[in-house]
Fold this sequence. Notes:
The complex is a heterodimer. The two termini of chain A are about 30 Å apart. Chain A folds into three domains: about 5-140, no CATH class; about 190-275, Methane Monooxygenase Hydroxylase, Chain G, domain 1 (Up-down Bundle), CATH 1.20.58; about 285-420, Histidine kinase-like ATPase, C-terminal domain (Heat Shock Protein 90), CATH 3.30.565.10. Chain A has helices at about 5-55, 125-170, 190-240, 245-275, 285-295, 300-305, 325-340, 390-400; strands spanning about 70-75, 85-90, 95-110, 115-120, 285, 310-315, 320, 345-350, 355-360, 405-410, 410-420. By secondary structure, chain A is an alpha+beta fold. By secondary structure, chain B is of the alpha/beta class. Helix content of chain B is about 45%, strand content about 25%. Chain B is built from eight helices and 14 strands. Chain B starts with a strand and ends with a strand. The interface of A and B includes residues 236, 248, 266 and 339 of A.
Amino acid sequence: MKLLTKTSLNYLSVTLFVFMFGTIAFYYLLRHQVNQNINIELEKRKNSIVNQLLSAHESIAAPTNQNEKILITPLNELSYPQLNFYDTIIYDQINKKYIPFRQLGFITKFNNDSFYVQIYKSLEETDNLIIRIFLIMTVLVILIIIALLITIRHTSLMAWKVFYDTINKINNYDINSHNEFSLKQSEVKEFDDLNRNLIAMTDRIKKDYSNMKEYTENASHEMQTPLAIISSKLELLLQSQKLDEKQMKAITDAYDASNRLSKLNKTLLLLAKIENRQFPESKSIMPTSLIESQLENLEDLIESKGIQIIKQFDENLILQMNPYLAEIMLANLIKNAIRHNIKDGYLIIKIIKDSICISNSGNELKIKKELLFERFHKQSSSPESLGLGLAIVQKICEVYDFKIDYYYENNLHNFSIYLNKSN
Amino acid sequence: MKILIIEDEKALTDSIVEYLHEEGHVCEAVYNFNDAVEKIQLYEYDCIVVDINLPDGSGLDIIKLIKKNSKSLGIIIISARNSLENRIEGLEIGADNYLTKPFHLAELNAHLKSINRRINFNGNEQIIINEIKLLPNDHTVFINDKELKLTRKEFELLVFFISNKNKVITKSGLAEHLWGDYMDTADSFDFIYTHIKNLRSKLLKEGCADYIKTVYGVGYKFDIS
């Protein structure tokens, strides 16, 4: 739920709640006030009637006005006269309807006789007035609520626009891009603060990132140079005429080890660079031509093992990725499929729609399938194999959101790369 | 050939100088940018071997300077940076080769020989070693003036051997020369053995002396002494 919808809903429910109870309270307050006024009026009339009765000796003409209606009854006829104020309904002969009245009953003495006097005040007009006031108030309040709601939504939308713009920009943020990360100015202080802090944060991250990149490069440089010295010195030593076989062997072992160390260093740096997304360049690549050139490079290896290659290419498949990474990804899979192949085995390369599947014949794995893509996990104990090839493939797939899958079926190891993760 | 080596690591420079010196090259070494610029402006060289990261400047700037003065000399970059961009940048501004550290001295030497042929013989020269005549550009070999058919890899092997004659060449050095990064070292050793066996038997069959010596556990040596 959007924040605006949520606040609007909250606002609406609270105002409706307050409005409901408010109107009920308002109605009764109004009613109470009106009754009080009428009471005062009736009281005044009562006093004037009592005074009139005390001063006048002739009978008082009964008023015809309903409003001024007075009912005087001798007290002895009534056993329980209703005293004080109360509401009643009287049938109006002229208008032929019941009309609400406020009535005041009191007892007064006239010529030593006690009379029970009832005076009335019609509530019809005041009731109408109350209803009208009540309706006008309700309409007014509803109008105010609607106007407020619209204003709040509108101003919020305007204010949040900057926020949504910021969210959108963060979503599309690419640390590798050299574009300036700029955010819209907002009139709202909080959003301005947010944007300012975000920019400061991205600047800091970018700086750290470039520092790390520099470190990666430097680490490579710093390590490769001493390695270059070691291997050059050993290569020179090998040229010496005075060495016996044993010494030659020792030097060669050290030489090979330094070469291996340098390869390992290069490969780990490559992995780090892939993880750091340091290959932003992207091109359209035909996997078929890449695969063909890899097979050509590995011709010797394929021939020596007598591997039969079965190709099934859908020429329409185009990869959108860094050409160097595409080459590494395919080369590693093909190399892997050849190295772990059996003599006179098969290498099947299928490119179908949006997947690349490389299968090779071979015996079932001794290690768990899950460990296959782990670094330094290798089945063969060959010291020359670094055990990083598939880890690199997986990292590359992660970068491009490809899915890589492995399964073993009919004596075939199958590695499939799905370009669309959803498949 | 007169070669200037620009590399700040003295130990590495010494190795290169020693190896190339034995090959009959005249080598000079400088360890920083300023000395390198001074040397290039004062003297003539056939080739420079330059490191990109120098303490007081970039090797790339030295190459640019050379290209600006339109000196036609061979340029080999040796650098620890092995990213594709660095490589492309180096080659684009006019370097002949880009070697990533650590490299095999035999590899550097082979590149220098190839540059030497290009500069001093316009690439039309022939390499003659006793009964072997090699035309690197035509990819042809003659033994006692009779053409010998070699596969591409065998030919590359022979050129590499002759470039580094009388030197012990390690198997990994050979493997990297023939396959670069494409093949893992472990896989390639067997093929080196096969290719060398084939090359040797072809040479012997044409009446060539047995120059290719196996150095047990280390590699091979093209021994013409």
